[in-house]
Amino acid sequence: MSILTERRTYVAGQWVTGDQVIAVENPADETHVADVSATPVAEVERAILAARSAFDDGVWAQRTPRDRAQVLHTLIDHLEANHETLVDTLVAEAGQPARFADETQCRTGISIARQTIDLYLSMRHEEATPVPVDDLTRGRVALSILRHEPVGVVTAITPYNAALIMALQKLIPALMAGNSVILRPSPLTPLSSLIFGHAADAAGLPPGVLSVVAEEGTEGAQLLTTHPAVDMVSFTGSTVAGRNIIAQAAPTVKRLSLELGGKSAQIYLPDALARVGIGAMGVVARTAGQACVAATRMLVPEEHKEEVLERVAAAYNSIKVGSPTDPSALMGPVISAAQRSKCERFVQLAEEQGAKVRAGGKRPEGLDRGYYFEPTVLDLPNNSNPAAQEEIFGPVLGVIGYRDVDDAVRIANDSVYGLSGQVYGADTATAVAVARRIRAGAVNVNTTVFSALAPSGGYKQSGLGRERGPEGIREFQEVKHMSIGELAQ
């Protein structure tokens, strides 16, 4: 494997070396991957002030959209040119199977990035709006214009489970809209994000328009969410962290775009039970359940629950857990010892409140190093079980029985979360009718789509705002109305 060699962080067009380092660990074998130079807090503030200056001076915001698009395509070209090294880096720092790093993070991420540029160019960012007839006849207003303008300085905070693609989902629409951005990756996976500094240099981004800062703690992140020169925070991560960001941003009333936790349900109507094995595999394959949209609650007709449990347990028992570099391994480790302990704790809590382990539930045999946890199936007695209510963020699936469709919808919506959902049924019209009743930001019926054109985001405590799609671009824009008339003589 050949990973990225950069260990410094990138502030306002300059590479910075701090006194402290972030030790990056490979969760697959617990080996030391690299020491990344942590960005000093003073340099984080310099990144903020440089972003403010770059935005206020208009060195990026006042360029034409097509000019910005050309620069960003060059930035993406740099990522593509380093594809193989990026994949190896993602595998090493996150313990992800190589296919996930390659196909999902790199290839899909880059495709979505380019699609986002095209989508932005296809949208109208200034247009005339109707003027009341009375105002026209009195000559008060000659023209009414609606403008979508950049927000200003944006903090982008990304998670460990999909560092590259999440960064692209934030950086490209924010930069296309003319904002200046400071990227702060997860301390667990900072290596891959450093490539954006070199990509910015390769593309000729003006200094201050994009900075990449890294830290092991949260002092810099708190500065990025409280500093009065920052206009917006775009964050993907846990609901707990999201609540903290809301509180930190409140005194300066920053704009927020938050994609937070989830406890999504996949509902199987009686005529779609043949698909439960595939649906169960989708929760843990490649990601080890470390995805906020993972549908970790499987809702099935009560009278067929035992049959479903047998099928799902057989599917999970067939999964090979192993090194991300082993092409025959379908699932790798979770990110850390703490995350593995969380999986163990919730399995125990589930059992204490009446659940039964039908597959997995412990560390796999023969894997003495690395943070592995078996793909686990829980027979949950009801939706009040801790494993049905809390986001575990690991390879743990709970199966819950429902009496009828109304009961299934009630169970699916009985959650503080509302990020996504799935409905499966041979009668598509019936399945769609169920999907319309699910309180979630995205609900898939018998299929899924993931593109720059399809927005995602949460209801309830799963977040604020949207990513991707036209709505995701508008998150990084302010709305200005201009009424224009001639000066009376």
Q: In DSSP terms, counting alpha (H) and pi (I) runs of 4 or more, how many helices?
A: 16
Could you give me the name of the CATH homologous superfamily of the largest domain? Aldehyde Dehydrogenase, Chain A, domain 1
Structural class: alpha/beta
Reading side by side through the largest sheet, how are the strands ordered?
14-15-16-13-12-18-19
Number of DSSP strand runs: 22
Indicate the proportion of strand residues.
15-25%
Main β sheet profile: 7 strands, mixed
The residue-averaged pLDDT reads 96
The residue fraction in helices comes out at 25-40%
Family: Belongs to the aldehyde dehydrogenase family.
Pfam families: Aldedh (PF00171)
Keywords: Oxidoreductase
EC number: 1.2.1.3
Topology, element by element:
Elements: E1 9-11, E2 14-16, E3 21-25, E4 32-37, H1 41-57, H2 65-81, H3 83-94, H4 98-122, E5 126-128, H5 133-137, E6 143-150, E7 153-157, H6 163-176, E8 180-184, H7 195-203, E9 210-212, H8 219-226, E10 232-236, H9 239-249, E11 255-259, E12 265-268, H10 276-284, E13 297-301, H11 305-317, H12 337-352, E14 356-359, E15 376-379, H13 386-389, E16 396-402, H14 405-413, E17 417-418, E18 420-424, H15 428-435, E19 442-445, E20 459-460, E21 463-464, H16 469-474, E22 477-484
Parallel strand pairs: 7-8, 7-10, 8-9, 10-11, 12-13, 12-18, 13-16, 15-16, 18-19
Antiparallel strand pairs: 1-2, 3-4, 5-6, 6-22, 11-21, 14-15, 17-20
Helix pairs in contact: 1-8, 2-4, 2-7, 3-4, 4-6, 10-11
